[in-house]
């Protein structure tokens, strides 16, 4: 195992943080998997999963059972880990700028499109190598102006040449679910089966600001669209994995998820282990545009009437919002059929607050499909 450290641009005098990565397996195998956790720094289940994976991979490496390079970044956001306000951890947005740590990654296709046609051929493997090399060169020329920009570039520099990119997150209160792109679903379906995903949410383009996994994956079909005469593969199979809710940090969950991830790596040939049997998929994949978000029509106390994982039908009650001053009680109902995969952990709502999300099979939304 090799440990690497990428220093970040210091935001203030006397401070310096770094991205620390752990590299297992042969680095000349031609294949690479990348797993990071806690990019939203207050989402900690994935950090514990990566801790367990470190121990498992060290043992597998000692036994000579790693067929590819596997890179772990357990602490993907040292900036957000240090953001505490009077005892409350605020790890989703950078306090200095208000920017979401998992948005605004560079459009990699735009960085390399000029002159690319001159070096593409009819060999998809050649094209994949050329594109990856050009992206790495382009990233190396970018000069970050802030610590946050330096962190984004450091994470991408570790992931852009990976065949598999998994970004471990969690939700408020939730069952396991994942986000990925339509072109990648068949490759990632076994992972959803092994992890017990209640919802698999698909979108080729989810919004107007690149998330980390989308920055790695979208470049490939963007370039296919620009250069249709050349075979360009899906050079990065990337997904965001939502490991249940924020408070569900336990050894049992971490061991289960680490086993599932290793099982998937075995299925994909990254590790020399017997591939586990695939359980049935709990629910079919659905379009991200089919998700219904229930929002508070007024402020009040939040009382949920449905648990995460519940299968809902139109008209089923989901949540009450109670105003104790006027005694107004508003019940929000599902308008679609699907699984309630996430709900807010706060029990007080401001007007317009997002309270719960239901995965439906029919598109009902367009535009920016992700929460901020």
Describe this structure in words.
With 372 residues, the protein is an alpha+beta fold. It is built from eight helices and 20 strands. The strands form four sheets. A nine-stranded mixed beta sheet has the order 1-2-4-3-7-11-9-10-12, sandwiched between helices. It starts with a strand and ends in a 12-residue tail after the last strand. The model has no long low-confidence stretch (mean pLDDT 97).
List its salient traits:
five-stranded antiparallel beta sheet; alpha+beta; nine-stranded mixed beta sheet; 372 residues; 26% strand
What is the element layout, followed by pairings?
Layout: E1 2-7, E2 18-24, E3 32-37, H1 45-62, E4 69-73, H2 78-81, E5 84-85, E6 88-89, H3 108-112, H4 124-141, H5 147-159, E7 164-171, E8 173-174, E9 177-180, H6 185-195, E10 199-202, H7 212-226, E11 237-245, H8 251-267, E12 286-287, E13 291-295, E14 300-304, E15 311-312, E16 317-323, E17 328-333, E18 338-343, E19 348-349, E20 354-360
Parallel strand pairs: 3-4, 3-7, 7-11, 9-10, 10-12
Antiparallel strand pairs: 1-2, 2-4, 5-6, 8-18, 9-11, 13-20, 14-16, 14-19, 15-18, 16-17, 18-20
Helix pairs in contact: 1-8, 6-8
């Amino acid at each position: 195992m090799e440990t690497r450290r990428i220093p970040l641009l210091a935001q203030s005098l006397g401070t310096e943080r770094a991205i620390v990565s752990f590299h297992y397996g042969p680095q000349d195998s031609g294949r690479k998997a990348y797993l990071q956790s806690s990019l939203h720094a207050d989402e900690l289940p994935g950090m514990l999963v990566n801790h367990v994976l470190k121990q498992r991979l060290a043992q597998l490496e000692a036994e000579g059972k790693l067929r590819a390079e596997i890179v772990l970044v357990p602490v993907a956001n040292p900036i957000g880990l240090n953001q505490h306000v009077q005892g409350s951890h605020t790890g989703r947005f950078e306090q200095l700028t208000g920017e979401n740590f998992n948005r605004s990654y560079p459009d990699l296709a735009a960085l390399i499109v000029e002159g690319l046609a001159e070096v593409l051929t009819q060999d998809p493997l050649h094209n994949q190598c050329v594109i990856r090399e050009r992206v790495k060169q382009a990233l190396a020329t970018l000069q970050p102006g802030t610590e946050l920009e330096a962190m984004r570039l450091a994470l991408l520099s570790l992931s852009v040449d990976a065949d598999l990119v998994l970004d471990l997150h969690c939700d408020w209160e939730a069952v396991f679910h994942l986000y990925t792109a339509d072109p990648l679903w068949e490759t990632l379906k076994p992972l959803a089966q092994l992890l017990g995903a209640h919802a698999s949410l698909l979108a080729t383009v989810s919004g107007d600001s690149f998330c980390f996994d989308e920055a790695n994956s979208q470049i490939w079909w963007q370039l296919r669209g620009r250069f249709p005469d050349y075979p360009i593969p899906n050079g990065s199979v990337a997904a965001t994995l939502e490991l249940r809710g924020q408070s569900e940090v336990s050894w049992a969950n971490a061991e289960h998820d680490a086993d599932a991830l290793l099982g998937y790596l075995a299925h994909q040939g990254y590790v020399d282990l017997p591939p586990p049997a695939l359980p049935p998929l709990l629910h079919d994949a659905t379009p991200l545009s089919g998700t219904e978000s229930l929002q508070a029509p007024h402020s009040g106390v939040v009382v949920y009437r449905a648990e995460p994982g519940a299968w809902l039908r139109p008209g089923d009650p989901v949540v009450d919002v109670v105003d104790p001053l006027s005694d107004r009680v508003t019940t929000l109902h599902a308008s679609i059929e699907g699984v309630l995969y996430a709900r807010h952990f706060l029990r007080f709502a401001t007007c317009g607050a997002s309270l719960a999300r239901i995965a439906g099979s029919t598109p009902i939304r367009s535009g920016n499909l992700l929460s901020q």
